[in-house]
Amino acid sequence: MHDLSYFRGNLDAIAARLATRGYELDVEAFRALDAERRAALTESETLKAQRNTESGEIAKLRKAGTDTADQQAKVRAIGDRIAALEEATKAVDARFYEVLAGVPNVPHESVPVGGLADDNVEVHQHGTIPTFDFAPQNHWDIGPALGILDFERAAKITGARFAVYMGLGAKLERALINFMLDTHTREHGYTEVFPPVVVNSASLYGTGQLPKFAADLFKLEGTDYYLAPTAEVPVTNLHRDETLEADLLPISYCAFTSCFRSEAGAYGRDVRGIIRQHQFQKVELVKFARPDQSHEQLELLTSHAESILDRLKLPFRRVLLCTGDMGFSSAKTYDLEVWLPGQSAFKEISSCSNFESFQARRAAIRCKSGKKTEPAHTLNGSGLAVGRTWVAIIENYQQKDGSVVVPEVLRPYLQAEVITARGELR
Q: Do 85 and 128 lie in a common domain?
C-alpha cells in the first residue's frame, strides 16, 4: 500500500517509475477522483462556516425574542448537506484505497529498468559448474530410479503437480529442513517460528497476495481461511496492527512450513519434476527493520540464503531483478539461481526482497523511536526452497552408476555418504 498523501503529491513521478515495471497508472482518472474529493471537502468546510454564522444569528434573534423557525430550518438543511458531503468523501476515500490496493510497489532507485528476465543483472556467480563423463540426468529420472521419488502414486492420491518422497528421499528432505533451520538459528541469529499454514484474508491482504492474486490461492470452502502460499504470510502478520520499538529492530524470524499454490499463472511451466508443485516445503527468512536499515538488511538476508548453497557446495548465481520482473509488493529483489545439470540451466531457488513500507502500511506494522512513529520496513527470502534444493543435490551430486553422493554437511543428518542405485545408504 502507498502513502496516500505522498502518492497525490508525486503522481507523475510515481506513474513514470511504475511504467518501468509494466504498470500503467491512470493518472487522469486518479486526479479526477481527487478533484471530486477536494470539491466535496471544500464545500463541506464552507457550509460548516456558514452553519456557524447562521447559528450565531439564531442565538441573537432568540435573545431578542424573534421567531427563528425559518433560520433553524436553513441550518438543518445545511447540516443535512454537510452529512451528505461527508458520506461522499468517505466513498471517494474508499475508492482511493481500492485503487491503491491494486497498485504495485514503486521500484527502488537501484533497480535496473527492464521488462523481461533477460534484463535482469547478474551480480555474481559462485561455485564451479560440475562436469560429467556421462550425460547427466534430470531429477525426475534419477529419483524414481533410486526409489526415492514417486509421481504416479502422488497423482493417484491427489493429482498432477504433487510428489511422494519415499525412504531416503523423505529423509533427505527432512535433513535439508533441519540443516537450514539449524544454520539460520545458530549462526545467523534468527528466531525460529512454527506458524499456522491456514491464514485469513486479512493476513493475505497485509502481505499483498489479496486481492490481486486470489486465483493463485487455495481457499477453504465456506470460510475466510486459505492455505498459505508461503511462510511470509503468517510470519509477517505476527506483528500486524502492532507498533515495534525501533531500538529493537531488526527482528529476524525463520520458519519451516509447507506452502500451497494453485500456480494459476504458471500454465505450461516446469510441468515435469518437482520444480513447480502445488504443495512444497520452504524455510523462510523474514525481517522487520527501520527504514534506514532495510536495504543493508536485504544484503545480509540474501547472504544468509547464499550461505546454505555455499555449504552444500552447489553452484549458484545472484541476480538483481529488473523493474518488470519483480513481484507485486517488492521494491527490490535478488533471485538466487542454482545450477541444474539435468536442464543445463540456472533455476531460481530463492527470492529475497525488500518491500520497504509497502506491506507494513497494508498490515499496520509501525516502528516507534521517541515521539516519531512510522511504518516499519519488511523483508523476506527463501532460505531455501527445500524441494528445489533437493533437486539440485540429486542432479549435481549424481554419479555414473546412478547413485548420489551426499553433501558433506548433510552427512551427520543422514548418517551416510552415498545414496545407492538400490535406494540404500552407505
A: no
CA distances from 90 to 37, 93, 99 (A): 9, 5, 14
Average pLDDT across the chain, whole number = 93
More confidently predicted of 263 and 195: 195
Helices and strands of the chain, counted as H and E runs: 13, 18
List pLDDT tens digits, range 296-334: 999 999 999 999 999 999 999 999 999 999 999 999 999
From 101, 135, 150, give the residue that closes a domain. Answer: 101
**Helix crossing, 11-19 with 27-63: angle to 10°?**
150
Q: What value does the CA radius of gyration of the chain take, rounded to a whole number of Å?
A: 28
Q: How far apart are CA 59 and CA 57, in angstroms?
A: 5
Domain span holding position 388: 117-419
**Domain for residue 321, yes or no?**
yes
CATH number at residue 88: 1.10.287.40
pLDDT of residue 37: 82
Look at residue 16 and tell me if it is in a domain: no
Residue that is last in its domain, among 45, 68, 101: 101
Is residue 322 within 8 Å of residue 359, measured between CB atoms? no
Percent of the chain exceeding pLDDT 70 equals 97
Spatial distance between the Cα atoms of 285 and 190, rounded to a whole number of angstroms: 8
pLDDT, residue 63, reads 87
Q: Where residue 267 falls among pLDDT bands split at 50, 70, 90?
A: low
pTM comes to 0.90
Nearest to 330 by CA among 367, 359, 305, 296: 359
How many Cα atoms occupy the beta-carbon half-sphere of 56 within 13 Å?
6
Identify whether residues 353 and 264 lie together within a single domain.
yes
- Please check whether residue 342 is in contact with residue 129, taking contact to mean a CB–CB distance below 8 angstroms: no
Q: How many structural domains compose the chain?
A: 2
